[in-house]
């Protein structure tokens, strides 16, 4: 064992003891990383789903990262033997994921979020892909809804949200369901923890530049709640745009004019929704109109960020 590996083992043991947990997983095949922020109720559902994985519990560990250290777990919050909770005070889910990466012992790193419910075969299916030589996986993100009667925002989510196959084609993947070999973080580096959003795809693009391939895996499934109201959706847009602006740094005057010229025109690429199956024409039309509204909103917010009258929100 190298000094670095020894240091990681000591830190993880200390973190587990601080959380009041005990782990029996000394050499896991996989490490699952779950950042959480004031989300204990939904985290319980995620923990239960991970506890019921078909992949043997003694072959994987779960590291939950509380990104709000002052918000302690509820009294009735308990964890299986292969789970632990650590704290990360630096704001942002990417800072939280980086903290867990420094402690993770698995040769495979699997990411999901506290509001997600992994399919029972999630890890088993993913491991099968890695046994066949895959380097990275963008797993399928399946939306679920509060009821069969969808809100306008839920219609939009069903039409446009979490297109992992599309992300994978550009080298990225949403960390709600992204799995990779641990060694790639030595090659690519950690997540950019200055970003409040978009750091998952940004890391993926760096990995692609290093020649690390990615595969879309429709059988590696995580269930994600669809946002149902406008307030939640606009908050998400602000996080995403904030991440994009931080990632691209300062914009030139020419960029300003391009934003103004392009940002207020109806979206063109999203017109392909009318050729997709699974939604009625009326729902497709409503989704497209809402997409146009979000584009206008995002453009306006982006301009506010660039001229300094708004600040990026945390993820």
TrEMBL record:
EC numbers on record: 2.-.-.-
Keyword tags: Glycosyltransferase, Transferase
Alphabetical list of InterPro entries matching this protein: Glyco_trans_2-like, Nucleotide-diphossugar_trans
Glycosyltransferase 2-like domain mapped to chain residues: 31-147
Family: Belongs to the glycosyltransferase 2 family.
Protein name: Mycofactocin biosynthesis glycosyltransferase MftF
Species for this entry: Vreelandella titanicae
Any one Gene Ontology molecular-function term assigned to this protein's record: glycosyltransferase activity
Lineage: Bacteria, Pseudomonadati, Pseudomonadota, Gammaproteobacteria, Oceanospirillales
